[in-house]
């Protein structure tokens, strides 16, 4: 054990966890870790206010791991998270921190995944269960999850769970845990509803409030590309071809991704190497040395493998997979802009990751501008310049005497034009790989994304009775508030008030399953047996299929394009036998708010 973990050792953590922290390269605890870990080790409840990126995952994971009884094969710690991505991240953190604690099992349960694999994990008796509220409720109702032995419950990003409509479910789950359990609640903000949860379920909590002071180098220009219409590998290739860079670091989330992305870039002609924890230390050092000496252009790395890496010639950092916390983001982009140089940082952002982007901007107090993906024409212009440069560099009369003699012999023996012969030599230089991208195909794709509104308008609906027009939502979607340039499409879901559906349930399910920031979810109208929702145009078919299968209130959404002509008067879709269901006036039904219904997470 080295001195690098003395900071954590002073907090009272056991040797097995300290060893894992040293392996992972952790040195000093963050403020929220230093303030939370001792109290959680003592069994106290903790109420923490901290932004994403302050290290709160380790703040609750490390002390609760220390209190975990590995010989007891039943759930002892329950972590509730708002999204499946966060649930996965917390579960992975538990595995990393417990790598030297034999017998610790962790199961992640969340919507959008099949029950079979989750049931198999739960049957093994994991000590940790990390999940989203809707799926945890499903397992409790099915009897596949037993909370009788729970010693601690963690509510991670409680304000986000409130925003997504899960707070009633959180209360319901807490009521099904033992009375003598420890509770840790972490939230970036403390709205009234979260305060009520704390007052109801926490006992004399230790309050921890952390202000983020993370800043980034002013010499680093930060941009992001919104992942849409192209694969990340294609986007990375285009950026590498158009941007003028000296050396580049590409950060990914997994070891496998380092290999796959590096292989792809190598196939495209770039001098690129992976860097991950499975690569022997000697080979990692060799790759970094090559990067320093200009023998490599790009390194694709995980956070752990790149820890402590310092190469002045790195001009660009690409967050191929954006990290889940601000601190990691700041550490990553800090690889560029060294020694007073200017640096470039570009992040690839998916829909659901817009929230992380906002957290980073808030914590670093810097705006991250959106960038367009370089077009095929942009790439082709650069390729043309480079190819012509290669030809000019190769014009060396003294060194090329032998080739000149061969060309002169060909011209004497065959009636060839000298320019045709030079063209053939250039083609041999390029080989079978196409020199240019298809600009027409690229333009067609762009036009489809930017086609005018009139091309997307639906045909006029047929004549209906006055009563029918008033009873049903309009066919056309409403403009997205504050973002009128975002085209919307109106969809119908096969769940309504009669099923106990609330707007928060629908927003939470769609945002989570579609990886879509909730601000892009438009108008929602809930009727008796169905509802309508406005979503951005151009969503991938696989995402729409996922939403079609997603379950809310115990039923599949059955998402499909909305057509009022296929909905009978009164707002009720026909039953399978072709008969209308009973009328309920306006189609609404009162329901008990204290009895949450099953929903997707």
From TrEMBL:
Region (Disordered): 437-483, 563-601
SMART domains membership: DEXDc (SM00487), HELICc (SM00490)
Keyword Hydrolase: yes
GO terms for cellular component: cytosol; ribosome
Compositionally biased spans, kind Basic residues: 590-601
GO molecular function terms noted in the UniProt entry: ATP binding; ATP hydrolysis activity; RNA helicase activity; RNA strand annealing activity
Predominant location category: cytoplasm
Reactions catalysed: ATP + H2O = ADP + phosphate + H(+)
GO biological process, any: RNA catabolic process
Pfam families with a match to the protein in the record: DbpA, DEAD, DeaD_dimer, Helicase_C
UniProt motif Q motif: location: 6-34
Boundaries of every Helicase C-terminal domain copy: 219-379
Family: Belongs to the DEAD box helicase family. DeaD/CsdA subfamily.
Family matches, as PANTHER family: ATP-DEPENDENT RNA HELICASE DEAD, DEAD-BOX ATP-DEPENDENT RNA HELICASE 47, MITOCHONDRIAL
Protein name listed in UniProt: ATP-dependent RNA helicase DeaD
């Amino acid at each position: 054990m080295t001195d690098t973990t003395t900071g954590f050792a002073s907090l009272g953590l056991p040797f097995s966890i300290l060893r894992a922290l040293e392996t992972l390269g952790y040195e000093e605890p963050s403020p929220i870790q230093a303030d939370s870990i001792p109290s959680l080790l003592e069994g106290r409840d903790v109420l923490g206010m901290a932004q994403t990126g302050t290290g709160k995952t380790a703040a609750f994971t490390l002390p609760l791991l220390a209190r975990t009884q590995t010989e007891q094969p039943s759930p002892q710690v329950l972590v509730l998270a708002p999204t499946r991505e966060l649930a996965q991240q917390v579960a992975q953190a538990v595995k990393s921190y417990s790598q030297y604690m034999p017998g610790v099992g962790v199961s992640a349960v969340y919507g959008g995944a099949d029950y079979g694999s989750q049931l198999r994990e739960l049957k093994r008796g994991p000590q940790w269960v990390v999940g989203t509220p809707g799926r945890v409720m499903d397992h409790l109702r099915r009897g596949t999850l037993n909370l009788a032995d729970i010693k601690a419950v963690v509510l991670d990003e409680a304000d986000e769970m409130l925003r997504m409509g899960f707070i009633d479910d959180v209360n319901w789950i807490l009521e099904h845990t033992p009375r003598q359990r420890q509770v840790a609640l972490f939230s970036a903000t403390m709205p009234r509803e979260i305060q009520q949860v704390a007052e109801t379920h926490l006992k004399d909590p230790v309050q921890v409030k952390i202000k983020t002071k993370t800043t980034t180098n002013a010499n680093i220009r930060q941009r992001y590309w919104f992942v849409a219409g192209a694969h990340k590998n294609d986007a990375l290739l285009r950026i590498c071809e158009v941007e003028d860079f000296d050396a580049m670091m590409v950060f990914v989330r997994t070891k496998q991704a380092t290999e796959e992305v590096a292989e792809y870039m190598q196939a495209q002609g770039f001098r690129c190497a992976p860097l991950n924890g499975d690569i022997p230390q000697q080979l990692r050092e060799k790759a970094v040395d090559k990067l320093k000496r200009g023998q490599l252009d790009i390194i694709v790395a995980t956070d752990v493998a790149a820890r402590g890496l310092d190469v002045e010639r790195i001009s660009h950092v690409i967050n191929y997979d954006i990290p889940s916390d601000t601190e990691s983001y700041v550490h990553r982009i800090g690889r560029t802009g060294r020694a007073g140089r200017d640096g470039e940082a570009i992040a690839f952002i998916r829909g659901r990751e817009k929230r992380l982007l906002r957290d980073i901007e808030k914590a670093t107090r810097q705006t991250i501008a959106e960038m367009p993906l370089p077009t095929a024409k942009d790439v082709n212009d650069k390729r043309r310049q480079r190819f012509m440069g290669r030809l000019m560099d190769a014009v060396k009369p003294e060194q090329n005497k032998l080739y000149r003699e061969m060309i002169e012999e060909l011209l004497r023996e065959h009636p060839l034009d000298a320019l045709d012969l030079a063209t053939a030599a250039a083609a041999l230089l390029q080989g079978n790989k196409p020199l240019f991208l298809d600009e027409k195909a690229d333009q067609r794709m762009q036009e489809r994304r930017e086609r005018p509104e009139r091309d997307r308008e639906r045909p006029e609906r047929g004549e209906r009775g006055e009563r029918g027009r008033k009873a049903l939502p309009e066919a056309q979607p409403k403009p997205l508030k504050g973002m009128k340039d975002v085209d919307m499409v109106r969809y119908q879901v096969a769940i309504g008030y009669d099923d106990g559906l609330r707007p928060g349930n629908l927003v939470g399910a769609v945002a989570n399953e579609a990886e879509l920031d909730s601000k892009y979810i438009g108008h929602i109208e809930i009727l008796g047996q169905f509802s309508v929702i406005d979503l951005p145009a151009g969503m991938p078919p696989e995402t729409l299929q996922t939403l079609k299968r997603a379950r809310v209130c115990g039923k599949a959404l059955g998402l499909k394009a909305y057509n009022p002509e296929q909905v009978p008067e009164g707002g009720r879709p026909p039953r399978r036998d072709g008969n209308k269901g009973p009328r309920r006036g306006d189609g609404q039904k009162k329901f008990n708010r204290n009895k949450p219904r099953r929903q997707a997470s």
